[in-house]
Amino acid sequence: MAKRDETQRKRDRARIAATKADCHICGKPIDYTIKWPDPMSFEADHVEPISKGGLDALANKKAAHRHPNLQPQ
């Protein structure tokens, strides 16, 4: 697997966090002040997982809680 561009990853996270969107998985609000690794902290989730052919692009990322994102789909 190719190494991800960490600079772009940080930019994408910042752009998604700036929207203050609710979790796209559970629909509940995200408290963006909670820090990782808290299960309710913010994560930028790949809507279509990279492992299933999804792109590592902003268009394929949405806000999610870390906890629901940890559940196998």
Question: Can you offer a commentary on this structure?
Answer:
The protein has 73 residues and is an alpha+beta fold. 23% of the residues lie in helices and 14% in strands. It contains 2 helices and 2 strands, in the order αββα. The chain has helices at 6-18, 66-69; strands at 42-46, 61-65. The chain has a two-stranded antiparallel ribbon. The two termini are 21 Å apart.
Care to give the gist of this entry?
With 73 residues, the chain is α+β, with helices and mostly antiparallel strands. The chain has two helices and two strands.
Helix content: 10-25%
Structural class comes to: alpha+beta
- The global form is globular
Overall pLDDT = 90
Strand order, biggest sheet? Answer: 1-2
Order of helices and strands: HEEH
Question: Which segments are poorly predicted (pLDDT under 50) over 5 or more consecutive residues?
Answer: none
Radius of gyration based on Cα positions: 12 Å
Q: Give the biggest beta sheet.
A: 2 strands, antiparallel
Query: Counting H and I runs of at least 4 residues, what is the number of helices?
Result: 2
Percent range for β-strand residues: 5-15%
